[in-house]
Design a protein that fits this description.
heterodimer; A: Rossmann fold; 46% helix; B: mainly alpha; disordered N terminus
């Protein structure tokens, strides 16, 4: 029996999942993954709630106002506790924490004995680990995995548009995750040029720009529009 | 419901890893239609007219 299976058995029946990323990473695709997850859950008919704990960007609450609750959960332990106390009673909870909050989150997890709290509550966390090649992101991923170990599940996220090297794959952390057969989620490859232009246009327009609409935006370079159009045509034909 | 905002190939991965992201995989009511993949024309190099010696 694997260490993860032992942990799950110790916890008993899982009634809820708590999906989040505690890694100190900015602009690596966290919102894209959250958006993909939410789109899939809506399509699959799964009841879920989104918790927007990034009070600065409020990405989830702006994009999914009807499904999101806002908590300022990474400044004080009081705010963190308030979020935990008011977790919506849905089988799946997606929490978006701000970048650069790893140390606070791990302190709060230690303070509130989060692992035990989740086990007693029937909640099994799934943590996203971005296979980023920058030192800060790798270090915060290592801190997170060192803290939670086999008490949570992990989903490794590769984002070829953002991470250009195989540096993460050469780390002991990558080997540790591979030993546990951690699934790898791969964000569709769009060039960084197009991604950055798309994000810049969203910032300029001050609103979320779905792919179908981005393809038509004259403000994007023609090449970027073709690239996004290819992605849209390739993936949208069979539903 | 449109799934074009993220791409079906991306969403299929969540379904594949449902045990990792859901408390119970039976919560999935609608399964994503699988895309076989972009059709590519393949040409047998032995019969490719462009490769014939003339």
């Amino acid at each position: 029996m694997s260490k993860q299976e032992e942990s799950i058995n110790r916890a008993g029946a899982i009634s809820r999942r708590f999906i989040t990323c505690t890694q100190s990473t900015g602009r690596v695709g966290k919102s894209t993954v959250a958006e993909g997850l939410i789109t899939w859950m809506r399509y699959a008919g799964i009841d879920f709630a989104a918790v927007d704990a990034d009070s600065e960007h409020q990405t989830l609450s702006r994009r999914y106002p009807e499904d999101s609750a806002i908590f300022d959960a990474t400044k004080t332990f009081d705010g963190f506790a308030r979020m935990l106390n008011e977790l919506p009673p849905f089988p799946l909870i997606v929490v978006d924490f701000p970048a650069q909050a790893t140390d606070f989150l791990l302190s709060a997890a230690r303070h509130f004995k989060l692992v035990e709290f989740f086990e007693q509550s029937g909640i099994r966390p799934t943590l996203l680990v971005f296979a980023a090649d920058d030192p800060t992101a790798k270090e915060s991923a290592a801190k997170t995995v060192r803290f939670f170990g086999d008490d949570v599940d992990y989903l490794l996220v590769e984002n070829p548009a953002k991470f250009k090297s195989d540096e993460f794959k050469r780390t002991a952390l990558s080997a540790w995750l591979a030993q546990r057969s951690t699934p790898t989620l791969r964000i569709p490859a769009i060039t960084a040029l197009t991604m950055n232009a798309w994000e810049a246009l969203e910032r300029k327009l001050k609103r979320y720009l779905p792919l179908a609409e981005a393809c038509q935006q004259k403000e994007l370079h023609e090449l970027s529009r073709y690239e996004l159009g290819f992605l849209r045509d390739r993936f949208s034909g069979s539903v | 419901m449109s799934l074009d905002s993220c791409g079906i190939g991306f969403l299929v991965q969540f379904e594949d890893y449902a045990s990792q992201v859901l408390p119970d995989i039976n919560l999935v009511k609608n399964k994503v239609t699988r895309l076989v993949g972009p059709r590519t024309e393949t040409q047998d190099p032995l019969s490719d007219p462009f490769l014939l010696t003339v």
